[in-house]
Amino acid sequence: MIAPDPPPAAHLPFFVYGTLRPGEPNHGLFLRGRTAREEPGRLPDAVLYDGPGYPYAVEAPGGQVRGELVGALPEAYEDLLADLDRLEEYAPGDPRNLYERVVRDVVRADGSAVRAWVYLAAPRVADRLRASGTPLDGGDWLARR
């Protein structure tokens, strides 16, 4: 389901599903000390693909990706958003993007849904992954080990 982007002032949580998850290398580098809360969540209608050391989520009916919902500290939000955009090599409207930052409904452990920022594979990357990528069974990056 495509949700319209919220106004820029909206401080939505982030849904992270790869190297930003607890225990993964980018969690400590980017999130430590900058979050108010972290909780399990799942992104419905998406499939997780293995990438070159990091995963890509691609929209696909019936799939699901497991990860965490991360709420940034209010005073850290803008800098964190900019840092995550750089990490994910995302710039609005750039056709070279590896990821697109979009708003999606993410399901919490209690079954309730919350709108969150999600970095999905950019269209050209998603097309390549659908054609010849390796989906990760169960949609859980941490289970690949």
UniProtKB/TrEMBL annotation:
InterPro entries in UniProt: AIG2-like_dom, GGCT-like, GGCT-like_sf
Residues of the signal peptide: none
Domain spans labelled Gamma-glutamylcyclotransferase AIG2-like: 14-142
Gene3D superfamilies tied to this protein: Gamma-glutamyl cyclotransferase-like
Protein name: Gamma-glutamylcyclotransferase AIG2-like domain-containing protein
